[in-house]
Amino acid sequence: MTEDKHMPKKAKKLKAIGKAITDIKLKQCLTRYTYRHRLAVAFFGLNADAIGKRTLEGYSIAVKLFLAYSAYDEIREAEKILRNTSRARQHKVIDFRVANQLRRNKELRILLENSVAVTNETLRKNLRRFYRDGNNEVMCVATAIRNCFAHGDFTAGGAGLNTKTACKAIGELADVVVQTSEEIFNEILS
């Protein structure tokens, strides 16, 4: 495993105990997680010719969130194996400050509430609670953005990511996803 400042803090511990992990799928998930985490943390943006600066910044921050969510998906898979369950756990993260920043972006709300990529009824219910009831659980927003991005229903402009403030909110949401993933990783290795 590469030594790198962007790796999870306990990545060295995984390397040290790696031979003791006999479940190959679990070991693969944990290893993939560390590298996905590293990419999400190290990612600083896209570079493309003939694309406006604001558009590029909007897509860049969406990619950062997507990369963070990719690491989160992988560590959830490892957690699922350890819990011996058929479904990955959805973690709830309450963050008042990030939630308020996200709710200021009206275009994002319209996208997420109307997207064909956000079809899971539980997710839709959690988004309604977030936007209409003021619930500060932000992982539902991260999940919905990830779905829109992965299924082609996302554009930076359509998500309102054309201001520094809107991009900053998504960047902070990506940080929440990275932190949540690392907490799960640390718990697994404890």
Explain the overall architecture.
The chain is mainly alpha-helical and 190 residues long. The protein is 65% helix and 0% strand. The chain has 8 helices and no strands. Helix 2 runs antiparallel to helix 3, helix 3 (53-83) packs across helix 7 (139-150) and helix 6 crosses helix 7.
Q: What oligomeric state best describes the polypeptide chains here?
A: single chain
Q: What fraction of residues sit in β-strands?
A: under 5%
Tally of alpha and pi helices: 8
Q: How confident is the prediction overall: mean pLDDT?
A: 93
Please outline the major beta sheet: none
Distance between the ends = 19 Å
Order of helices and strands: HHHHHHHH
What would you report as the Rg, rounded to the nearest angstrom? 17 Å
> What is the overall silhouette?
globular
Q: Are there runs of 5+ residues with pLDDT below 50, and where?
A: none
Q: Helices and strands in order, then pairings?
A:
Layout: H1 11-17, H2 24-42, H3 53-83, H4 96-103, H5 106-114, H6 121-132, H7 139-150, H8 164-189
Helix pairs in contact: 2-3, 2-8, 3-7, 3-8, 6-7
